[in-house]
Amino acid sequence: MTGALQRYRVIANVVGVVLVVLILVAVPLRYLGGEPRLSETISPIHGFLYIVYLAATIDLSRRVGWSVRRTIGVMLAGTIPFLSFVVERRTTSELRPA
Description:
The protein has about 100 residues and is mainly α. The protein is built from 4 helices and no strands. It is elongated. The two termini are about 15 Å apart. The protein has one domain (about 1-95).
């Protein structure tokens, strides 16, 4: 379980950072600055990393016995800026051995 938790933690933070850069930098540059290149680059990267995040979440979920509802909630955290950081911290503090 510790390997699955570590993989989840890393990808949750990476997805969170890439999503924040996408939403706070790339999208405004695209629509307010007329510069779409960063958005065109970051968007597919986030999409790929989000799929990896989903796989890591499913792996962790199966190992710790989460409900389907909890698993889906954690999965959706990767789509809302900053929420993946909050959910990752909560999950880690809950699952990390004392």
